[in-house]
Amino acid sequence: MNDGKYPPSVNDASIRPALHERTRYEPNLPQEELIVPLLRREIESCISIYASPPLGMAKAVDIGCGGQPFRSVLEQIGYSYCAVDANADGGPPVDFVCAADEPLPDELLRRGPFDFQLCTEVLEHVADWDAAFANFALLLAPAGRVLITAPFSYQLHEEPYDFWRPTLHAVDYYARRAGLRPVYRHAAGDPWDVLGTVLATCKFVSSSMALRDRALAKAIRVTSRLVHRAIVTGWVQRKVRADAPLYLSNVVVLEKQLG
Could you tell me the strand order of the sheet in which 96-97 lies? Predict the structure, then answer.
C-alpha cells in the first residue's frame, strides 16, 4: 500500500525531486566543505591512474552525470563522452534519460561498449543494485573499468530517492555478482571529516525559552562553528589524531573480467 510518502515506483522520473545540478565539483553548502573537495581529489586521481584511454576510439559513459563536472577531464585525455541521467533537466543536456537500475535503451547499448564509466555519488539513490551492477558490466568493454563513489556518512538528501549508505564490502559483493573485480578500493575521509560534516549539518536550538537553555544553545552553536572551521582548514588534524571506524565515502574502481 502506498501511503503517499513514498512513490509507487522508484524509477518514476515524473516524481523525482528537482535538482540543482553541480557543473563544477565545488562545495555549495557548509556540510559539503569536506566531502566535495575530498571526492574531487579522489575522482581526479583515479581518472589519472586508472582511466588511461586505449588506442583508437576511446569511449566513456557517465551514469548519473548530473551537471557533468568531469566531462572536460575525460575529453581532455581522449575520451568521447556519453551522458546518462535519470533527470532530464536541471543541468546540461544528456544523451540518454535512464536510471542506473532500469533496462538500458537500445541506442545506449549500440553506443557501447565503453572503455570507462563514471558513477559518482549516485548509487545511494539506486534501489536495485543487482540491476545497476549488471548494467555496468553490460556497458563495459572487456577489461573496461568503472569508477564508483557512494557516501558512507552523510545526511539524507534527494528524498525519497535515498536508499543506502553502503560499505566497501557491499560494493565488493555486488561487483563480484556482476563479474567485476576491484582494482582500487578506498574508504575516503577520516573521523575528523565525519565530525566536521555532522557539525555543519546540525542546527542547535534551545529546548525552551529559559535563559540558561538559550545560552547553552548559543555556546554550542559558536563552538561547533569554530570546530568545523578548524577541521576544514586542517588545523585540528595537525594537532590531534582521531581513531574510529568512520569515514565519509567509498571510492572503488572495478574492472570487467575477461571471458
Answer: 96-97, 79-85, 58-63, 114-120, 140-151, 249-256, 180-188
Neighbours of 67 (CB within 10 A): 18
pLDDT per residue of the chain (259 residues) written in tens, 0 to 9: 334 444 444 455 455 555 556 788 899 999 999 999 999 999 999 999 999 888 778 999 999 999 999 999 999 999 999 999 998 776 789 999 999 999 999 999 999 999 999 999 999 999 999 999 999 999 999 999 999 999 999 999 999 999 999 999 999 999 999 999 999 999 999 999 999 999 999 999 999 999 999 999 999 999 999 999 999 999 999 999 999 999 999 999 999 988 6
Neighbouring CB atoms inside 10 A of 108's CB total 18
Q: What are phi and psi of 135, to 5 degrees?
A: -65, -40
- What whole-number distance in Å separates Cα of residue 115 and Cα of residue 214? 57
CATH number at residue 104: 3.40.50.150
Same domain, 102 and 216: no
Environment class of 145 (CB within 10 Å of its CB; exposed 0-12, middle 13-18, buried 19+): buried
DSSP letter at 158 equals: S
What residue type is assigned to position 83 of the chain?
A
Structural domain contains residue 3: no
Q: 147 to each of 20, 50, 187, 206, how far by Cα in Å?
A: 23, 9, 14, 44
Three-state DSSP class for residue 36:
helix
For the chain, the domain total comes to 2
Distance in angstroms (rounded) separating the CA atoms of residues 26 and 28? 6
The answer to whether residue 57 sits within a structural domain is: yes
* pTM score over 0.70: yes
